[in-house]
TrEMBL record:
Residues 280-391 form the ABC3 transporter permease C-terminal domain. It comes from Thalassospira alkalitolerans. It is found in: Cell membrane. Residues 27-243 form the MacB-like periplasmic core domain. This is ABC transporter permease. GO terms for cellular component: plasma membrane. It comes from the Bacteria. InterPro entries: ABC3_permease_C, MacB_PCD, Macrolide_Exporter_MacB. The chain crosses the membrane at residues 28-48, 270-301, 322-345, 365-388.
């Protein structure tokens, strides 16, 4: 860059800063739309990224080999899944290594004088392996317990029982479920909620599967939890499991949910939310861009004599265009910077409130810079061209 060009650039920058200070009221109004639009887009990028990362971290903890099978009614008949059909799945060599039949429902239990909301889970003994939970105290239920009224309680239930009674829960304590009395034989450690199984073991009371008949008049299998065999393809396994149950159950079909399907659903939902918020952000950016254009056009009208004088004294039309285009770009960059900061702050607050670990989305800064340049150039070029096309003689005579 030559010395003369450097001098011109410095003078243009000085003039731009001074002009923006003079019109700071209008400039501030124009910035609001840019800030809101940019903040909406940046916030959505952060939320989508952190929601997906939180889900993937759960898969990292629990693995991607869990499978949930749920009977779905195909007509007016209630689906019925025989226990023997479930137990024999690993023998079919269709990619399932372990299964657990589950009867699940929510209820309230009574411990002493306290009523506590809990999930009753009558399940075969593989549920602990599949759910990847660990025992903290006592022992686990077993299929050998038959219909005995034994119970293994989750860590959250144990904490609530301790708080309500004023003493630690002990092995052998009794809890009441309706008219039935259950004996605590084990307490689970703190567990991570599985996105596949959808079971919160912290709020669960696990019983032997056969004990469900003591609590329900006609218990039916509500879910089947399973583990994939090592190296099994989840898509092919899901298809084989569906075909297997179509031959061995009545009143409906079996819906199979795997980790890959859940991740695809998460990505699909995040895409829908992203499109919605990006649309709102685009509208806000257009409104902010129109505001910038109006500010620049008003500046051109108010400074017609100044522009005419500059042109008469030898300023090039390119310099006039550059001056007004720089003003538009500075407004857009300032609004984009403010919106990016607000988007980061909003994303962090939402992630913290949701219990997620906040991680900035990788595309945040490129998107912010890109929006600033697009808005500044698109909505600033027309006023800049109008200013450069003014006739010096007419501009100097104008009031």
């Amino acid at each position: 860059m030559s010395k003369s060009e450097w001098t011109v650039g410095r003078e243009v920058a000085r003039e731009v800063a001074g002009n923006l200070r003079l019109s700071q009221g209008r400039s501030l109004l124009a910035l609001i739309g840019i800030v809101i639009g940019t903040a909406a887009v940046i916030t959505m990028l952060h939320l989508g990224h952190n929601a997906r990362e939180a889900a993937l971290r759960q898969f990292e903890i629990l693995g991607t080999d869990q499978v949930m099978m749920q009977p779905v009614s195909g007509n007016s008949d209630k689906p019925h899944v025989p226990l023997n059909t479930v137990v024999k799945i690993p023998e079919q060599n269709i990619g399932i290594d372990a299964v657990a039949a589950v009867v699940q429902y929510g209820t309230s239990i009574r411990f002493g004088r306290s009523q506590i909301q809990a999930i009753i889970l009558a399940a075969t003994d593989k549920i602990y392996t599949i759910g990847k939970v660990h025992l903290w105290q006592g022992r686990l239920t077993s299929d050998l317990d038959a219909a005995n009224s034994f119970a293994v309680i989750g860590a959250g239930i144990a904490s609530e029982m301790t708080a309500s009674s004023g003493r630690p829960v002990r092995i052998g304590d009794k809890i009441n479920v309706g008219s039935r009395v259950l004996t605590i034989i084990g307490i689970l450690g703190d567990a991570t909620i599985s996105p596949i199984l959808g079971i919160d073991f912290n709020r669960t009371i696990v019983l032997p599967f056969a004990a469900a008949r003591r609590l329900l008049p006609s218990p039916n299998i509500s879910n089947v939890a399973a583990l994939l065999s090592p190296g099994a393809d989840d898509t092919q396994t899901a298809k084989a499991v569906t075909e297997y149950f179509s031959r061995h159950m009545s009143g409906g079909m079996m819906h199979v949910r795997t980790a890959r399907q859940l991740i695809e659903n998460i990505d699909r939902q995040m895409g829908i939310y992203a499109a919605l918020i990006l649309g709102i952000g685009a509208v806000s950016l257009v409104v902010g861009g129109v505001g910038i254009m109006n500010v620049m056009l008003m500046n051109v009208m108010e400074r017609r004599q100044e522009i005419g004088l500059r042109l008469a004294l030898g300023a090039r039309r390119g310099h006039i265009r550059l001056m007004f285009l720089c003003e538009a770009l500075i407004l857009a960059i300032a609004g984009s910077a403010g919106g990016t900061f607000l988007g980061y702050l909003t994303g962090w607050v939402f992630a913290s409130g949701s219990g997620w670990r906040f991680e900035p989305a990788p595309l945040t800064l490129p998107v912010a810079v890109g929006m600033a340049l697009v808005v500044g150039l698109f909505f600033g070029i027309y006023p800049a061209v109008c200013a450069a096309r003014l006739d010096p003689a007419i501009a100097l005579r104008g009031e």
